Amino acid sequence: MAQADRALVTLERDNGVGVVTLARPEKHNALSRALLGQLVARIEEVNADPALRVAILRAEGPSFSVGDDLEEMLQGAPREADVAEVVGLFQDVTRAIMFSDVIHIGAVDGLAVGGAFSWLLNCDVTFLGPNAQGFLPEAKHGLFLSGGLSLLLPRRVGAARAMSWLLSGRRISAQELIEAGVGLAAPNGAAAAAAAFAAPLVEYPPRALAAFKGDVRSESREDLERALAVETKRLFQSASDPELLTRIAAALRKG
After folding, report:
1. pTM above the 0.85 mark?
2. Under a CB-based contact definition with an 8 Å cutoff, are residues 114 and 67 in contact?
3. How open is the CA angle 181-213-184, to the nearest 5 degrees?
């Protein structure tokens, strides 16, 4: 079955909570074009449903997401239209999460890489299981950031720490992420913690939830749109680099 014909992202409704699940565990939820398109559609479906005030973003399998589908990227020289579509989808995931009145809760167990790591900061609250890890390898691949990460990461963890994570390309443990303020500890698993946190919120007045989301977070829509625009330009340029595929192939050979 072709990717576009199968459910790579699912949506379940559970007593006023929309549970959006990355469902490509055999590929560790690698972010193919088809998966990204379905993810945008499922989040927008949640946002449009007045019966859903809270959403959880989680994943099947041992990884939250290993980031870009490198095998898909290696299928041929990138066409400008394809690059533009994928870059746009990454940014649209962020818009769908951050520009809605729905409270979005991240539930991260396992590895969260690249563009998927940005969703930890896009969500209003993120729970991190003991085996959660962040990984930002863009610099070593010659790519740029997405998901508003160029704005959100230094604001959340400080400029020096953000640069150290981005330039070192090392894996960041759950404990370090928690200490830096990226997420909250979920010692018994992120999905269970997110579900327990979400359950009472569905009884809150919708206007109160929307007000807290709109006013407590420090990022204005204008600031975030500017960051997304710069990222889109830089990411398009870097993803169109003819040497990118050579670097990605080398990285895959190293495992």
Report:
1. yes
2. yes
3. 25
